């Protein structure tokens, strides 16, 4: 019987009425609901509470009359409320509205900003949003908006946030990559600038998600973008002397980390002198504890890209010295040890069957998050192998001389029969209420 419920009831009746003039009444009622939602937290809780039909009415209004999305945006202010909207079918309705709005020429900018802002809010709560966007045919709408409005930062920011959500799906990442999204991201990110840092951060996060696809990573390597990423990172490292933009610097490293998941990316990183760049910048970051995430990520990248060699190493790269066996003058072993010091002599099959993997990326439908974390083969995870083996320093026979000093380790403490001089079998007494005390050898 509250004011909000009364307004929602009026809105529900308007939705059922197909009279032309009712659109103005719907605008009036939704503006009233908007005022209550903006001014009262109690109203927002009331509309999203269990058993309330407020969300259904709002969604029905959006379906029938695609205007005034502001009240919808005010409701979506928390994670739980976003989840409620997802379960009520809000994602599907917003995607349909986006498809309808994109057909206008030119599209309504205000409507596009609102739609993308809402999708960016509820997208992380809907694991199937990538598949839904592809099925509804709206996957490239956000991409085309960014292409056509590169200077309109107010519009492309929510579009990039939505593209970041879409890119979590590997099939979407491949599809967007074919339409030039990787090249587009490099038009947005650039050298150090204090302007539009929030846009830079979102663009880097989107690019890092896109480069997790091997297809997109190869595309970035072929166009020389690994060198570009390293140059941008050095530029931000030099100018960010007060460390206010650590998240942007970490975003650049995440892009490098994603692209070096493939062998071509690791080779491009090494050829671009990336090892020296990340080592020097990490050394300069060690004194500042808040920059530990940069050092950790740089270390992971360097470990991943450093050439792997079999032990024992015949070069100065080894931290340990081994007594090398006699090596034949010819044969595969001799060829292995005759390689230059900077050659990676460990076979890397990570990029084999790339075409088959590309096809599987497109054919396989799995909308769960597929972060391809790099597996460090040099880290032992078997607990049994990590446990130190305790071996005796002497044979058992030599240790028996010490038995007399530690009789408790070898004596069999049993009750002896004084007549037969033999141990009695132990039989517990059921009448005993206290603990059973076994006599020691000295007491016997």
Structural key phrases:
444 residues; ARM-type_fold; mainly alpha; protease; hydrolase; carboxypeptidase activity; two-stranded antiparallel ribbon
Description:
By secondary structure, the protein is mainly α. Among the domains are: 1-88, no CATH class; 90-179; 193-309. 57% of the residues lie in helices and 1% in strands. The chain has helices spanning 3-16, 22-39, 41-48, 54-64, 70-75, 79-87, 90-102, 109-122, 129-135, 139-148, 153-166, 170-178, 181-188, 197-210, 214-222, 225-239, 246-259, 263-271, 274-285, 292-305, 332-337, 354-363, 383-386, 396-399, and strands spanning 416-417, 422-423. Helix 12 (170-178) crosses helix 22. The model is unreliable at 66-74, 352-359 and 361-376 (pLDDT under 50).
What is this structure, in a nutshell?
This protein is an all-alpha fold. The chain contains 24 helices and 2 strands. Among the domains are: 1-88, no CATH class; 90-179; 193-309.
């Amino acid at each position: 019987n509250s004011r909000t419920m009364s307004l929602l009831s009026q809105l529900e009746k308007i939705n059922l009425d197909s009279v032309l003039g009712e659109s103005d009444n719907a605008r009036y009622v939704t503006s009233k609901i908007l005022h209550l939602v903006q001014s009262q937290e109690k109203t927002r809780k009331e509309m999203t509470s269990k058993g309330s039909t407020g969300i259904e009415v709002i969604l029905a209004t959006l379906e029938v009359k695609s205007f005034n999305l502001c009240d919808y945006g005010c409701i979506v202010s928390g994670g739980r409320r976003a989840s409620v909207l997802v379960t009520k079918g809000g994602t599907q309705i917003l995607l349909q509205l986006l498809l309808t709005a994109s057909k206008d020429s030119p599209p309504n900018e205000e409507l596009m900003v609102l739609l993308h802002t809402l999708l960016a809010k509820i997208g992380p709560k809907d694991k199937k949003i990538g598949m839904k966007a592809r099925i509804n045919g709206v996957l490239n709408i956000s991409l085309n908006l960014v292409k056509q409005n590169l200077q309109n930062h107010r519009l492309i920011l929510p579009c990039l946030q939505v593209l970041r959500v879409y890119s979590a799906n590997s099939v979407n990442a491949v599809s967007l990559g074919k339409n030039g999204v990787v090249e587009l991201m490099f038009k947005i990110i650039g050298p150090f600038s204090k302007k539009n840092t929030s846009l830079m951060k979102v663009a880097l996060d989107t690019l890092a998600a896109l480069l997790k696809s091997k297809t997109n990573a190869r595309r970035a390597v072929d166009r020389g973008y690994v060198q570009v990423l390293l140059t941008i990172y050095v530029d931000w490292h030099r100018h960010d002397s007060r460390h206010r933009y650590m998240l942007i610097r970490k975003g650049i490293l995440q892009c490098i980390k994603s692209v070096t998941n493939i062998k071509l990316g690791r080779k491009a990183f090494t050829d671009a002198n990336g090892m020296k760049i990340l080592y020097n910048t990490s050394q300069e970051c060690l004194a500042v504890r808040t920059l530990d995430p940069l050092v950790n990520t740089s270390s992971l990248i360097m470990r991943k890209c450093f050439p792997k060699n079999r032990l024992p190493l015949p070069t100065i790269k080894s931290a340990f010295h081994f007594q090398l066996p006699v090596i034949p003058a010819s044969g595969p072993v001799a060829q292995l040890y005759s390689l230059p010091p900077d050659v990676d002599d460990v076979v890397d099959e990570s990029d084999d069957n790339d075409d088959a993997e590309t096809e599987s990326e497109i054919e396989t439908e799995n909308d769960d998050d597929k972060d391809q974390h790099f597996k460090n083969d040099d880290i032992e995870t078997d607990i049994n192998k990590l446990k130190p083996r305790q071996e005796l320093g002497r044979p058992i026979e030599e240790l028996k001389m010490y038995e007399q000093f530690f009789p408790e380790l070898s004596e069999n403490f049993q009750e002896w029969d004084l007549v037969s001089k033999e141990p009695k079998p132990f039989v517990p007494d059921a009448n005993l209420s206290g603990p059973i005390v076994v006599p020691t050898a000295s007491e016997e």
